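User: Before I run my own analysis I want an independent prediction to cross-check against. Here's the chain; please return only the structure tokens and, at the end, one sentence I can use as a sanity check.
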Amino acid sequence: MKLVSKEPSARLSESVLLAVFVTEGSAPALPRGVVVAKHAFDDLKGEFREVRLTDTVQGPLRRVLVIGLGKKEALDAEKLRRAAAIAVQRAESSSAPSVTIHVDREILKHVGDEVAGVALAEGATLGSYRFEAHKSKPKEAKLKTVTIVGAGRVFQAGVKKGRVLAEANTFVRDLQNRPGNKMTPRDLAAAAKSLVKSGRITCRVFDEGAMKRMKMGLLLGVAQGSREKPRLIHLVYRPAGRTRGKIALVGKGLTFDAGGISLKPSSKMDEMRFDMSGGAAVLGVFRALRELDVPFEVHGVVPTTENLPGGAATKPGDIHVAMNGTTVEVLNTDAEGRLILADALCYTVAKIKPDTIIDLATLTGAVVTALGHELSGLFASSDKLRDELVEAGKETGELLWPLPLLDYHKEQMKGLFADLKNISGGDMGAGSSAGAAFLAPFVGNTDWAHLDIAGTAWGGSNRDWVGGSLGSGVGTRLLVRYLESRR
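Assistant: Structure tokens:
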């Protein structure tokens, strides 16, 4: 799908469909030259997601689609994002090859020109997302062109930025949605290498031999049950101007997780293709940074492997040694994400020495029990980092909820036969806090946040631009926004 933007002064495109938005108590503001029947919108209330479709009687566009935004005082970027997604989905379902989204000046004034431009471009692009890469006869999308019309250079710049962010998200979704035999650690590393761009973005991939030399016993211990060799991906972005610091993003990259010897139930095991969603989100940030600029040196570290019950697989009770010398008793081989992240965090602290580390992982089913599918769990070592990430989540529609990480939780992760154990006792509960508590010793005193995205990476409620059984791409837009707004 082609996305373009125009000023209202430009000649209206000969689109099949015109989409306009209306708030409660207002009349639709149609562009000059577009006329509909006199009473077409008489009983239109403008409630959020209310839709009205009518033919034109005059003008270059054949039909007009009016989408309600709800009360004006409650209007925000998320409602615009959803409205744009509705517009493209209705265009596709009506077989329209083109749609023009016309945004009234009053709406831009209320939401903000750049914010509105970003949200509309995101909604239009993400709302039209399809994944049919592995079908023998994929259906061709009917909608070919989306034109967004709004006044001002700031709005136009917002549309351009929103397109970049949305395309980064769809890049992540494409990685997530590929099955385990089409998305191996080698494939994920190849996707990372494809992001390299003329010195601004570089990529290094470490193989199994390099990991052995670095003594990454936890990552290698998880990988030893699979014939697919593990990889450690290290991406680096350098800003155009002077850097204001060094940020590291670490993403869990389990390309398929059967649970190892602690085998998962067979029901829905196919969904464990999504266990690499944190790693994919990190790659997505670099996909966006190919076209955007942030004032930080950004590092992306992704440990990637499979977790399978092969003959050489780690057995419950086995002990492995982390890169920093910490010994870990593996009581449950299905709590493997924290193991590969621990070695990646050791590498990040020792080799990169960042000011801040943020990791993302589909780590625990407990976070789904606690927060459902609409909120990611957040554990942060400082109030400043917590607040900045929460705000970035609100602005992008990728909401975060702070969860507790107490000394008690950390004490419960101490092992009987080793320094640490990879699961807590059965009477502790708080599984998400236990996962974060296991990771905490591996970051030392570095400012750190852990995002548990097990509930939000897929399976969420339909919000027009995201939701359902496919991957959501969660994390990429949120982290780019954090990098832009970090103080």
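Sanity check: The mean pLDDT is 96.
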